[in-house]
Amino acid sequence: MKSRGVSIFTLSVICTVAGGWAVIHAQQPAAATKDPNAESDDKILAEVHDHNEIMANLEYLSDVIGARLTGSENLKKANDWTRQKFSDYGAANPHLESWTIARTWERGAASGRIVSPSLHPLEIASYAWAPSTNGAVRGPVVYVKAQSVNDLTQYKGKLKGAIVISAEPAPLPPAGQPAPNPVTIPYGDSIVLVAPHRPGAQVTPGPGFREYVRARTEFYKSEGVLATLTDSGKPDGLLNMTGLGGRNYDIAPIPAAFVSAESYGMIWRLLQRGPVQLELDLKNSIGDKPVEVYNTVAEIRGSEKPDEIVLLGAHLDSWDLGTGSTDNGTGSMIVMEAARALGKSGVRPKRTIRFVLFSGEEQGLNGSRAYVAAHKDELPKFSAALIHDVGTGRVISISLMRNYQDREVMDKVVAPLRSLGLLELSERWMTGSDHASFDEAGVPGFFCIQDPAQYFETHHSQADTFDQAHEPDLVEGAQVMAVWAYNVAQLPDLLPRKPVTPTAPAGGN
Question: What whole-number distance in Å separates Cα of residue 143 and Cα of residue 165?
């Protein structure tokens, strides 16, 4: 075991000086003052490094179970399987906690082609929670350039039977250009929601943006638009995916689809030359009643303060074009590995360490919001939550989410992880994953900042498969999560919380 730190003590040396005795005091290095968690931390690190089951579990989740859209049979299979794995690993009280969505949605076949001025097939996929077309439909492409509801009035009476696009193609990055180090990106909004190497690819929603999009879609419906198309913004023919149902799992007013960047670029270039006509055929199945979905939960009970909780989390649900391997099979299997390693290493955390695999993250953090609501009475005894959700890349820092009050303590918590290459902690505020549900509820919610690897190129696409996983980086991620959880569980007190901001009285100036 490596010692951490060196103490100094006073050594008295007795010797003769000019025929007499003298006592000489000298400072000498003593045996190191040992970190009380050092032995346990080393056991955890070694257990993950030497005996982890991350890749075997990720392969099963990806290839045998597959994509895990919220509300799907596959997600329920993943819930049941992960519950059993937690049990196999000796975790206490492995169980499923239910919440409800308004309706399910299932993808069917999708096809599209340019039919005029020339024939070209389109790479296309329907948005989730969007309706089907009425069989194969044909219509002219119309570019709607608008930033507000007022801008839409110029298109009144001009869109009946049209297929609408509403943005110019976003430029793809040059081949081989690496994504920037997330630690060096300036503070601001999420690097989770917006690909940092493609600043024009997506727009971070500002105030009123979502309301405008809803109003625009309703306008399209009232005007008789057949469908809308969106640039996937990914290289090499990859499609993107998200949903239009929002947090309520509503069905979009009209059909909508992503097309590959290459297909979108061709449509745009042809449109600059003259009229373009497309044919689309989108088939989807929509459930007609609410259904229960689940979070998978397990824990290691605390030996001294079992009612105080440290949480490790990731989301188990995925989009359905690929197999959800890096978004977020990797995070889920890392959390499961942390549970295995903590149990197998024989450590006894003072507080309870709870492991939660959330569902519904991709539709707006719904599973973690439901969890926070269901456990609201327990939240005052949560010390912190740490979430892993940016794919296969190694953890290079931890975002403190502006929990400035925890910086000094957290520096000590992660000190044993410096040997893994963990960089200085970050105060960056980031949205877009389940940590935000806890942080908004007052629980310090932290987030793993990771090397982006190829995450933004492949996530939400048909290329999000097991082949993208980097085993050494996932092992390091599990080591970070497990040691972090144990060390926070051993702290003398719960982590301090942000000061509560008083709510201004209604009706003020």
Answer: 5
